[in-house]
Structure formats: structure tokens, C-alpha cells
From TrEMBL:
This is Non-specific serine/threonine protein kinase. The keyword Transmembrane applies. Keywords: Membrane, Signal, Transmembrane, Transmembrane helix. The chain crosses the membrane at residues 240-262. Pfam families: DUF1191. GO terms for cellular component: membrane. Residues 1-22 form the signal peptide. It comes from Lupinus albus.
Amino acid sequence: MRVRSIFLALFSLSLLLSIAFSSFQLLPDSGISSSDLDAILQDYAFKAFCNPKTGVPYDAKLPKNLSGISVSAMRLKSSSLRKRGVQSYKEFQIPIGVVEQPSVERLVLVYHNLGNWSEVFYPLPGYSYLASVLGLLAYNGANLSASDLPELDIRASDKPILIKFSNVKSAPSGSVPKCVYFDLHGSVQFDILSPENACSTLQQGHFSIVVESNAPAPAPAPAPEPVAVVENGGNNKYKVWIIVGIVAGGLLLVIILSLIAGRVIRIKKDMKIQQLEQVSESYENLKITSIGSTKAPLAIGTRTKPILENNYVP
Ligand SMILES: *[C@@H]1O[C@H](CO)[C@@H](O)[C@H](O)[C@H]1NC(C)=O
Ligand SMILES: *[C@@H]1O[C@H](CO)[C@@H](O)[C@H](O)[C@H]1NC(C)=O
Ligand SMILES: *[C@@H]1O[C@H](CO)[C@@H](O)[C@H](O)[C@H]1NC(C)=O
């Protein structure tokens, strides 16, 4: 009885643990993180350049497995960016006074429109997107064949950079659309949406418009999305290995815990046997006397001495 309930407890514990661990799956599911995507898109954006003119956007060609995303690149002298800004670069309006850190002579502004991949790379539980996630990232423009470049840090020092979204879905009645901003380190900020569907920023990153979704967002709901998106075998393999790891870890835990439980049960049994032995030993201390043909333990001392009735004189 007790053994069975211990195993039941162990089983449910391991089940709980594996559920807890499986939430890790959500993070690396598309196989590439949003910062990996930034690096991939930087590479394709730079390849779009062929004797580039400064201040002109060049659209990049992306592979089929990224279709739905659009990327452009614009090369600028940093002095020109600072003094003149860029009146319009797709949805972005860059004012004067934007400076980069560390300082370079030429920089490349890479534009992202993640289209139907927005939720995949920037999942936001509890919210739904009314517009595509747009990105603006700055890189050193000295070597146009370079890849894996780190982003430069750009900051608007005078007026903020404006993002005027087009193709914005109308918000459900009663809900208030908000600007959302993802910085390059994965933190998220919300801001009010100005009229004409414009958001503003002092820094680079990714931007969109969201509304809080009324439907309660259960934790497992976003899980199938990235799965459906995965097309290359490598990512699936990754997922399978995570599941295998979880199952193996769970089994190992059950085995270890049941070994410990077995040990505890055996120690308890041993203790019981010892107790029984002690009891029987104490019986052995009693003198065995033969009464007729049967042997019986005989206590030497008696607690109450028998008193003869006729000692009493009424
Ligand atoms: C897309 O396909 C190319 C091969 O055409 C592959 O090298 C690359 O890893 C794939 N990228 C993604 C993001 O799946
Ligand atoms: C986005 O749409 C393109 C077709 O325009 C499709 O090939 C791609 O798989 C879609 N991506 C996602 C994440 O649904
Ligand atoms: C530019 O980068 C490429 C790739 O990293 C490298 O092979 C090349 O030498 C670099 N060119 C210059 C001028 O630094």
C-alpha cells in the first residue's frame, strides 16, 4: 500500500517536472533566435550592395525559407546622418542628430519587415499584432563583405526617430492599440501610439503596434506556432533531442527517487525486525519454567504481593 502511494507520488512528481522543463522548448523552437535572424539578415542586406550610392535603399534577396520577410540596406556617411538625417527610409523618418557609438566613417542602416514572421521571432503572449514587426539596425559600413558584424549603438539626440506604420489592422472595439519596442537585448517596452499610427524611438531595435488580446492566452497556445514554421530538418532534430533529454532526465529521476524510496523502506523494515528481535530478546530474559509438559516464561518478581484474606480482622 505505502510502496504504491510512494511510486504514485514519484510518478506525478516526474510528470510535473517534465511539464516544467518542456516550457524551455518555447524559446529555441524556431531554431534561430531573433538575434541570429538579425545576423542572417545583415549578411543578405550587405549582399544587396553593388557599387552602392549613399543614401539609396537597396532591397535584399532572401532565400525561400525566409519568404514573407523583406530587408533593405542603405549606406550613409555618418557625418551626413548626423547633420541631415534621412527624410524617409521605408516607414522610418530619421531626424538630424542621430549619432553612432563607436564612431565610424560610414555606416549601413539595415531595415527589416518581418511580415508574417513577426509572431515567430517576437512572440508576445497576451497581445496580438496589428502591424508587421519592423526593424532598424546600424552596422559599420567599412567592409561590405563582412558578416557577423556587431550592431553599432545609434541614438537620437535631438528629436526621436519616427516610425509611420502602413497596413495597420484596425483594433477591436474597446481595445487601445499600443506601440511595442524590442531592444537588441530582448527587453520589451510599450508606449502610446500617436495619431497616424506612428511610434517614436530614440534607439534602434524592432517596433510594432499591438493590442491586448481579450482571449486568455494559455501557456501552451504559442507552442504550435513556431513548430508549424519550422521547415528545415535541423530544427526538428533539435526539438526531438530536447524531448529525448526531458524524457531521459525524467526516467533517471524516477529511477533515482525509487532507489532512495526502496532504501528507506528497507531501512524501516530492518528497524522493525530489530525491534521484534529486541522484544523477543526481552522475552528470553524471562525464565522458562516447565509446567507439566509445556514450557512457559516465568516472571520472577510479582508486583502486588498476595495478601491473605484472613489476615484481616473485621
Ligand atoms: C534557409 O535555407 C538555406 C539553404 O538554402 C540554409 O542554409 C539556411 O540555414 C536556411 N535558413 C533558415 C533560417 O532556415
Ligand atoms: C509567410 O508567407 C510566405 C508566403 O508569402 C510563406 O512561404 C511562409 O511560409 C510564411 N511564413 C510563416 C511564418 O507563416
Ligand atoms: C572584409 O571582410 C571579409 C570577410 O570577413 C574579409 O575576408 C576581408 O578581408 C575584409 N576586407 C577588408 C578590407 O577588411
